[in-house]
Amino acid sequence: MINKASKVLLEVKNLKAEVGGVEILKGVDLTVRAGEVHAIMGINGSGKSTFSKVLAGHPDYTVTGGQASFEGQDLFSLEPEQRARAGIFLAFQYPVEIPGVSNSALLRLAYNTLQTERGLEELDPLEFDDLIQEKIKVVEMDPSFLGRSVNEGFSGGEKKRNEILQMAVLAPKLAILDETDSGLDIDALRIVAKGVNSLLSSDNAVVMVTHYQRLLNYIVPDYVHVMDGGRIVRTGGKELALELEARGYDWLRAAA
Amino acid sequence: MNLTQKNLTREQCFEQLLLGKTVKSTGWLENIRVEALAHARILNFPSVRHDDWRFTDLSQLYLHGFQPVDSFARLTLDDIRQWLIPGAIRLVFVDGCYAAELSDLKHAGAGVVVTSLAERLGDRQVESSFGRYAPYKQDAFVALNTNFFEDGSWVHVTGEVARPIQLLHVASKREVSSAIYSRNMVVVEPFSRATVIEDYVGLEGGTYFTNAVTEVVLKNDAQLQHIRVQREDKDAFHIGHCTVEAGKNSVYAATSLAFGARVSRHALHIVQQGEGAEMHLNGLALVAGRQIADTHTQVDHAAPRGKSIQLHKCIADSSAHAIFSGKIIVHTGAAGTDSVQSSRNLLLSDKARIDTQPQLEIFNDDVSCKHGATIGQIDAGALFFLKSRGLTEERARNLLTHAFAAEIIDKIPVPALVESLSKTILERMGGLST
């Protein structure tokens, strides 16, 4: 939902970043306001996944130029955990398995960390259980997954649903979904999309990084950006995604 | 000569220990003691040239002149409450002496005898088992223990015992560096089953040397869960030895944990004497600061169709040093042996060190033996994931370290102990992350 009057959450200007000495992002500009849904599309290697990781503060990537601010605060002066506490959430393309840490324990630890940050009361295990029982309905997850180690032995779809469960619990202002649709069958995709849609409000925003138009049938974007060669080369509405689906990416590259 | 000052040599330290208080006993035990002392004199302390000790730096231990414990320290239940396991059958020893008033034997009913060893020396069962397994003719520490121990535990299992049996060895806080000898003897009769927890703890603020020896006999079809917890005080030294003889179709499940002490070593030697014996060995050493923790295990598959599954983990932070040596020997005739050994290690700092040495010796065909070792650091991907969920670096590292340890701890079938150990680990890690 586009509302030009709503608050700017994320403002990225001429962002440049490299990994292992190779420049991947070569000047990205993006403005995200509260209430908006953005899709960033592009071929493999275009830099779209790098962009999401740089925003979350992944240590493998070095910012070499440009600025990014989150609610007016310099993003790059913040550690990853400070960004999370400020309200940024990254749903991982490849969710990490953590043997020995139960899903519910991690969720409660993360939730209480944010509660403390927001000056709110921490929840004890019983109170948290009430909350989590509500939240797992969002992603239609079996409660037995709560007691299991984080992502250990989960299928691809279960891992992605688990990411959205974390998003539901942490209630971020800006959720960045890094290829959340990859590796999902159609049923899982529908569940994940339904979960994300149920979390959208006029106060938060979503940036979806995706290769395929398919996801956008379920989570309808306000803006579609096409990334190529480390830059956003075209921005349009949801119809741009359909055009990409029909014509591929080559015509854009030729035009650029 | 009575050396109490620090900075002794290896020889002086040994001489000082030989001056320990002579414990008078009669008959069969006196003969063993005399023999043990004679062997101790011959054996002397091992040096790093000794192959079994080449990674283990005992020089810090040798600096001290350890005095015998000559008076009984009166502790109260409040002093040791943090280590008590609710509902357990409990023997408590303070500085190697039996503390009846701290022990709790009211649950030791039918199926088990749990008593002070010294009170039971007239028992034919004790006489026929004691000293038969511990290598007091080969190992100087075992020899010293055998000569100087005053008391210990006697656990005789003749049925199915549901409650855990805790053998709590407490070091009191003493003015002088003290030598403490702990001794345990566990015999499990056929078709009997029990859970035994050997627990070594120390009150804060003393330098002492615990020398612990345990002998375990599993008769045919016997089952034992044997948990050994070394959570001595930080300036302590701890050298332990446990020998297990496993009979036909017996099941021995052991967990050995090393958290405490400045320098510690535990040697576990299991001989599968009867065919079809099965064992599960789990181990964890968690060290920081300048701690040294050494775990040596040896499994002798001496009969057909034996099974051994072993997982040992070391976690070392700061300038600590952890050592694991795991030897598996499949003897001639031990056909159909099935053995898996895995050593997994976590280095938390650039200055920490872990030596792991899996060794397989196979003198037989028709066996399946697998072993593997890994050494790694905290997974950077997992660390970033946790930080991206709002956890601080410290919190995230502690969580991952705890999770690495939890794989061993969580398998212990005594929930109250799991909880208490989890707390111990988190406390140690609080110290680790600085």
Radius of gyration of chain B: 21 Å
What fraction of residues of chain A sit in β-strands? 25-35%
Q: Enumerate how many helices of chain A there are, as a single number.
A: 9
The counted number of beta strands of chain A is 12
Biggest sheet of chain B: strands, sense, closure? Answer: 10 strands, mixed
Report the CATH C-level class of chain A.
Alpha Beta
Report the principal-axis shape of chain A: globular
Order of helices and strands of chain A: EEEHEEHEEHHHEHEHEEEHH
Question: Strand order, biggest sheet of chain A?
Answer: 6-9-10-3-11-12
Helix content of chain A: 25-40%
Proportion of residues in helical segments of chain B: 10-25%
Determine the strand fraction of chain B and express it as a percent band. 35-45%
The residue-averaged pLDDT of chain B reads 93
**Annotation, overall tally of beta strands of chain B:** 20
Report the order of strands and helices of chain B: HHHEHEEEHHEEEEEEEEEEEEEEEEHHH
Largest sheet geometry of chain A: 6 strands, mixed
By secondary-structure content and strand pairing, the structural class of chain A works out as: alpha/beta
Q: How many structural domains in the coordinates of chain A?
A: 1
CATH architecture of chain A: 3-Layer(aba) Sandwich
Give a short synopsis of this structure:
The complex is a heterodimer of chains A (256) and B (434). Chain A has 256 residues and is an alpha/beta fold. Chain A is built from nine helices and twelve strands.
